Structure formats: C-alpha cells, structure tokens
Amino acid sequence: MIKDSIHGIPVSVPESWEELTPRQALATFIILQGFPKKSKAVIQMLLLQYYIGYRPTKKRRTLETLETATDNLRRIARKVEFPFDTAADGTIILNNVMLRNPVPYLRLRFKKYYGAKFDITSVTRTDINAITFVECMDLCRAYVKSNDEEYLTMLVALLYPDGRTYEDIVRTNYADRFKNVEQEVKELIYFWFTGVVRWIMEDDLYGLLFRGSKKQEDSISRGMSETISALSAAGYGDILAIRRLGATDFFDLQIDSYKASIQRYVANGGKPEELSKNLHIPPSIIQKLC
User: Fold this and answer.
1) How much of the chain is helix, strand and coil, in % rounded to 5?
2) Per residue of the chain (290 residues), what is the pLDDT tens digit?
3) Least CB-packed of 78, 89, 117, 185 within 10 Å?
C-alpha cells in the first residue's frame, strides 16, 4: 500500500491488484471501463476517490473532473498506476495480469462455487488443466468476435467447476446456473483469464511456444490442440491423460521437447548463434535451452 495524507488525514492507496478485496477489484474494474473514453488522469482520480472514500461536498459535486480537484488529490491520484501498462508501441493500456484470481468464489443462492487458480509466483501454480485452458481460450476469442454472452457464461462455468470435469461441464446444462451472474463479474473473470494468457505469451520460455503467428491468441488454442495429439503420438501418454495435465505442466512438457530438439541440433554441429538468428530468439534464451 502507498501511504500518504490528505489535509493531515492518513490514507492508504493500493499499488497492485493483489492488495484489493474481491469487492474492490470489481469496483476498480467497473471504473476502468471508462478508459480510454476518459483519460488516464481522470480514471486515476475516480479510483483514488473510491479507495479513500472521498465524498465531494454539495458545492464540489464535480470533483471527478480534474479542473476542480485539489493539487494534493491530483498528486496522490497519479500514484494509482497498477491498473495501467504500456504497450510496445508506447500506447497506454489496461493491466490485466494479476497474480491470482480476483474473484475467488461466486455465491449462487446458498452455495459457493470456488474459482480456478492460476497463481503467478516464482513457482506458478494452477488447477486449470490443458483441455480446459484450450477451451477457455477458444471461448474468449469467440466472445470477442460475437459478443454472445453464452460464450462468457460457459467460460465462467469452466473456471468455476465445483469439482466437475471438463467433460461433465460441456455435456450437461451445468453452465445454466451461471446465466444470472452479474455481467460485470463475468467480464472481470474474462479480464483476469485473458491476463493469464497475456502473461504466458510474454514469458521468456512459455512465449516461445506461440511464436510465429500474427495473432498469438489464435495460435495458442490451435497450437495446444495439435500439440496434445503430437505428444500422444510421440509416446508421452494417451490423449486423455495429456488433456488432463495441469496447464503449466503441459507447457513445461512442450518446453522440454523444445529443449531436446535444440540440444540435438547443437550436438550435431549446429551453432547456437545461427539458431538464434533463424528462429528470431534472443541468444540468452537459446543458452537457457542448450
């Protein structure tokens, strides 16, 4: 937390998604939906007001506009940086990479449905298996293209499985119970999962698995589906067993296969620097794989 003060009153401002409660994470996400129609500075001011519980007086109900905000509020608002990131081209974008699921459970009537985990730490842990990850990626892409809420509802069902297998969920009407989950909550779950995908694509090693496509989001699910069959054919286990591997275990298995290919290349006289040039992979990454 960032510690500061307003008119001598101490305030605490979060500096990461992980410092938010589920309620705060949802409120933050809702406020962020105003970006980029509203500028980053305005969004930061709105977030600050929410975090510190600031309520404008009757004479200053338009405090949400920067023109009427005090210099002190402006100064502190600029510290609310964690929801934003910078793309490779310098464009300001929203930061959806979170270290854990911001919606740990959904309460439907009197029952809690606990969400999938994808905890990004020094040792990444997840209970999402390979086939579920593939299907969730397909659902995200389909939702973007069609804006059909059925895809979003199925995504939530797969990520809040209540002990059911992937096969049980897709072959039954299990997803129907999530139809009435608030739209903003569904969208936040989607926002989190696409952040997981983004983290994978930007990771030095896992990102190697999805190079060579102009649309990496498409290549993830297609590449994984094809790889499941290829790994099975290569003797790594039957298709069902590989489908049920944890997503990161599945990625690690592919990286191991990738390493073996590079090491065979080098053992047969190939030069790492040539491989780096041909595959457009930084020499430092090639060295890690040799």
Assistant:
1) 55, 10, 35
2) 988 887 778 888 999 999 999 999 999 999 999 999 999 999 999 999 999 887 666 555 544 454 555 778 888 899 999 999 998 899 999 999 999 999 999 999 889 999 999 998 777 888 898 889 888 988 999 999 999 999 999 999 999 999 999 999 999 999 999 999 999 999 999 999 999 999 988 887 787 776 654 444 444 445 566 666 666 666 656 666 767 777 888 888 778 777 777 778 777 777 777 777 777 777 777 777 77
3) 89
Q: Which amino acid is at 67?
A: E
Number of Cβ atoms within 10 Å of the Cβ of 109: 5
Q: To the nearest 10°, the Cα dihedral for 101, 199, 125, 24? A: -20
CB 37 within 8 A of CB 30: no
